[in-house]
Amino acid sequence: MKIGIIGSGIVGRVLATGFLNEGHQVMLGTRNISKEEVLKWKKENPNGLLGSFQETAQFGVVIVLAVSGLVAEDAVNLAGKEHFSHKVIIDATNPIAAIPPENGVLKYFTTLEESLMERIQQLIPEAKVVKAFSCVGNAFMYKPDFNGSIPTMFICGNDEEAKKTVTNILTSFGWETEDLGKVEAARAIEPLCILWCIPGFIRNQWTHAFKLLKK
Ligand SMILES: NC(=O)c1ccc[n+]([C@@H]2O[C@H](COP(=O)([O-])OP(=O)(O)OC[C@H]3O[C@@H](n4cnc5c(N)ncnc54)[C@H](OP(=O)(O)O)[C@@H]3O)[C@@H](O)[C@H]2O)c1
Fold it and tell me: Does an H or E element contain 179, and which?
């Protein structure tokens, strides 16, 4: 598939490399293709393409949104809303506010009644937005190694086919997927990032992932 990754931060670069390893065509989108970390990524991934946000959104059949939550809507507008229509959009963002955590607990600019994913879906109503990759650190997004135990990625979204596509991607990346339903479920999935980060902030423990046990 053609994968367009909007955002060249660590999440964008890790996912871009993962998709390339799985045999997809990948464009990494950034506002500045001459940034040091972007050039390094290109050198290490010669098959990967670089483009503007707009070129990347046009290129992708599947688009990954991997920008700071504070500017997620700006990034979609920069890329051109029309380029998202009818496509599968993987939303990896979290609505982390620009204020420090309190005793290791991150602050969000959203509420429990409205997630960032819902705002994004409203901005691009014809896009098939699926929340994924938001509840784990970038070091574990691709082929997480937990001594044989497969961690759980929580996803949600309004389009069933899009969630099947994302589930197949997650399976190839080494995850089991738990589908929590429609877009409103992002109100519960996005705060999992707060939970994931607490052990990191309070005792520098960052090497974990969630697993849903079932009977
Ligand atoms: N870091 C993690 O391990 C992790 C794990 C799970 C989820 N997430 C979520 O994934 C997203 C990306 O995280 P990250 O750590 O890779 O990087 P980040 O620092 O949160 O975001 C970096 C990206 O945001 C873009 N950006 C910054 N200001 C912008 C603006 N004014 N307009 C448009 N785009 C702008 C940058 O674009 P350019 O490419 O143009 O510089 C860059 O690609 C975040 O929402 C984060 O909460 C992160």
Answer: strand 176-179
Are 193 and 96 spatial neighbours (Cβ–Cβ below 8 Å)?
yes
C-beta 194 within 6 A of ligand 1: no
- The model's pLDDT over 32-83, given as tens digits with 9 standing for 90+, comes to 999 999 999 999 999 999 999 999 999 999 999 999 999 999 999 999 999 9
Give the residue carrying structure tokens 């204020």. 99
Ligand 1 geometric centre to CA of 69 (Å): 7
Sheet containing 62-65: give its strands across.
49-51, 25-29, 2-6, 62-65, 88-91, 128-131, 152-157, 176-179
**Is the shortest distance between the CB of 95 and ligand 1 below 6 Å?**
no
Question: What's the pLDDT at 209?
Answer: 98
Cα 164 to averaged position of ligand 1 atoms, centre (Å): 25
Is 181's C-beta closer than 6 angstroms to any atom of ligand 1?
A: no
Indicate if ligand 1 lies below 6 Å from the C-beta of 75. yes
List of the chain residues with pLDDT < 50: none
Encoded amino acid at 8, one letter:
S
Strand partners, 101: none
Sequence-separated contacts (24+) of 46-55 with Cβ below 8 Å: 47/20, 48/16, 48/17, 48/20, 49/25, 51/4, 51/27, 53/6, 53/29, 53/78, 53/79, 54/78, 54/79, 54/80, 54/83, 55/27, 55/29
**Residues in a beta bridge with 90:** 64, 130
